[in-house]
Amino acid sequence: MKTTLLICILILSTVCNAKENIKGSWIVTKSGRVTLRCRPFDFSKSPSPDSLAITNILKEQNDCYNEIRNKLKLNDDFEFSIYLFNYDEAKEKIGTNGGGHANSKERIIYYTYLNPPIKKSPNGIHEYIGNHELVHVFAYRNFGRARKIVREGYAVAISGDFSAYKASNGEFYKKPIELWMKEYNEKNQVLSPSEMLKGGKIPYSQFYPQSGFFISWLFEQYGVEKVNMIYPKLRLYTLNESKLKKEFESILGESFSTIENNYLAYCKLKK
Ligand SMILES: [Zn+2]
Prior knowledge:
Largest sheet: 6 strands, mixed
Order of helices and strands: EEEHEHEEEEHHEEHHHHHH
Bound molecules: zinc ion
C-alpha cells in the first residue's frame, strides 16, 4: 500500500442521501483506503473527533481492512468511506447513536462517534468503529446478499464480539461472543443452527452473538475457504430449508444433523 497520505479539507456537504441525513459541514481526511468524514470542532453539543482521534480512526480502519481481508482470505481491493456523526445527532440522522450501519453497495459506513470510545476485551484498546460494518461490505462484494445466519454471523465472528457491557471498573467494553455463549448456556437458550438458518423473529441480542459463534466454529472446523463457499448459496429467496441444509452437506461433506450435533456439543463445553 502507498505511504499514508493525510489530507485535511473542510467542506460544506451539499449531497443529500435519501436514507441518511448527511447535511452540514464535514472535515474530510483520507489515509490509505479510507476517506473519513467527521464533524468540525463545536459542530454540536457532543464532542467532534480531534486530530489525534482522526489519525487513530484512520489507522484503525485501514488495520480492520487488512485484518478482514486476511482472516477471510479474500483477494479483494477497494476503497471505502465513513461518515462519523456526533453522538447527539446520530440517532436522528442515521437511526442509532450506539453504532451504525453500512451501505455495502456504495462502500459507505455511517457511524456514531463515541467519546470515550468503547474498549476491546481483553486488551483494553479503544475501538472507534471496529470491523463489523466493513465485514458486511467485503461479504456483499464477494458473496452477494444472503441470509442473516451468514450475513451477521460473519460480521460478529470476525470482530469476536457484539454490543458492549459495563465492567466492574465502570468502563465499557465490547462483549466477547464467548461471554454471550456462557450466559445463553446458563439460561438454556442456545440456538441450534437449524433455528438460525430459519432466521425468523429471534431477538437480535440472541441471534447476532450466536450466529457469530456458530460461524467462527465453522471456520475452525472446516476452514474459511469452505465456509466462504457456503455463504453465497444461502440465498434469501430460497425458502426450502432442506435445500439450504443440502448446501452445507455438499460443501462440508457431512450431514447437517452431524454438523448441528457437533456444534451443540461444543457449545455445552463453553458453560
Ligand atoms: Zn451487522
